[in-house]
Amino acid sequence: MIRILRLISRSLAGKFLALATMFLVVPAILYVKFADTDAERQAFLLHSLQVEGRLAAEVLEPVLNRAGGRALLDAAKTVQDLAIDQVHVKLLLRPAGRGDAFFLVAASPAIETADLDRERQRLDQTGVLSRLDASCAGTGPLAVQYAGTSGKDELLTSMSPLHTSAGCWVILTSYGLDDLAGSSLSRPFSEAPEVRLAMLLYALIAVLTAMAVVGTLIDLRSFAKLAKRIRQGGQADNETFAQVAAIPELIPVAGEFDRMVATLDASARAMREAAEDNAHAFKGPIAAMTQSIEPLRQTAGDDPRARQALEVLEHALDRLTSLVQGARRLDEAAAALINARLQSVDMARLSDDMAKAFQRIHAAEGVTIQAKGAKSAYVVATEESLETVLENLLDNAIGFSPPGGTVTLTVDALPSKVRLTVEDEGPGVPPDQLDSIFRRNFSYRPNDRRPKSQAHFGIGLAVVRRTVEVLGGRVHAENIAGAGLRIEIVLPAA
């Protein structure tokens, strides 16, 4: 759980998913709470309206209990007097001995005589009158909607039956749906104007938030694609980060990326130029010293001290020449990788080809070179850079291997990575110097079988480390139990 929270807190996509979840969950929770509150409010309002209906029935009850024809006139007048605020009152009578037929006796507001029968029929269609049994007893509270003859919908809120000698009286109270009370009771909570306005504003906020996050993600993906093209040397039409940035706030960041790319390009050019300039600068003095040795050798004759001094001088010149060439190789290799066109390269195939080529070249030395492991394992690099790495690793391993020894190249395809291992059967390296063998100009060769003309001066493994690190990988060395050295390289898989 902690790991998930840490991932969400660091990831923009994770934060967007969390925000989207909040946008979905919080409104649902609030809607349920507000809907429950609205239901309670409607229940309270309906109860209040029903109380008003019962009060109207209590006012009419003594009038209806009077005997004689005067009772109908007094009841009609009382119904008109009850017409207060928004309440509508209707008085119906089912005469004794007349079956189930009801007659509309009075209404407030008043209804035209021609519409009385239609109003009664519409009330009858609601089914509320059928709830009354023979003793004129039935349900009191109501919440039934119906269309009156006036063309306006009404909401029946209460029905109060009363049995007298004249028959079964029914007092109905209702409210117009265009009135505040009626509209509040008949309208679902989701259709309330304030709820719809809140939902509209909330949806607008959600859309704006989504647009901001999605726009940022799109720009970041555009940055990643352009960075990948630049890394692979495929930047077309001089496209820049500032050109792909659609969000104004990201343009300054894009500008810094463009300046960084320009600085890297300038650094690559400077490294190549410096390597060339240094090589040419040292070439003249070294050539002059080399040419000056021959007259000195003729002058030295048989003097042992003079000949020994000349040998030391020749060896120093050879070392100086190798150092200059090695430094040039190292700088040029690093500069070439800064803006090289990277591609998918099969490390397994290349290792097998290099092993066969070196086996032919070094067959006379009695060293066996073999490649094994995965049949294919692709990495993002240049074939030239990987050839340089393999060449230096094989050259180093062969130089340490005894006659009849074996050098083994193993390629393993790991999840999202490719591992290359080079093993030899040489003497190994002291544990305290394992990290130093990748340093520039460091060389440890206690039993080097090669002539001085092929001496090494600590450039090969330095080139390996710099090349691997530029490609996003890592390299390390370890001694093999018994005898030998193992150098392991891990590169990102394509």
From TrEMBL:
Where in the cell?
Membrane
TM stretches of this protein: 12-32, 197-220
SMART domains (UniProt xref): HATPase_c (SM00387)
GO MF assignments: phosphorelay sensor kinase activity
SUPFAM superfamilies given in the database record: ATPase domain of HSP90 chaperone/DNA topoisomerase II/histidine kinase (SSF55874), Homodimeric domain of signal transducing histidine kinase (SSF47384)
Q: Gene3D superfamilies under this entry?
A: 1.10.287.130, Histidine kinase-like ATPase, C-terminal domain
Cross-referenced Pfam families, in alphabetical order? HATPase_c
Q: Where is the Histidine kinase domain?
A: 277-494
Q: What class of enzyme is it?
A: transferase
E.C. no: 2.7.13.3
Q: Which domain of life is it from?
A: Bacteria
Protein's UniProt keywords contain GTP-binding? no
Q: Which UniProt keywords apply?
A: Kinase, Membrane, Phosphoprotein, Transferase, Transmembrane, Transmembrane helix
| Keyword match Nucleotide-binding | no
Residue spans making up a coiled coil are none
Question: Where does it mainly reside?
Answer: membrane
* One cellular component (GO) term of this entry: membrane
Quickly give the catalysed reaction.
ATP + protein L-histidine = ADP + protein N-phospho-L-histidine
PANTHER family given in the database record = SENSOR HISTIDINE KINASE TRCS, SENSOR HISTIDINE KINASE YKOH
Please identify the protein, giving its name as recorded: histidine kinase
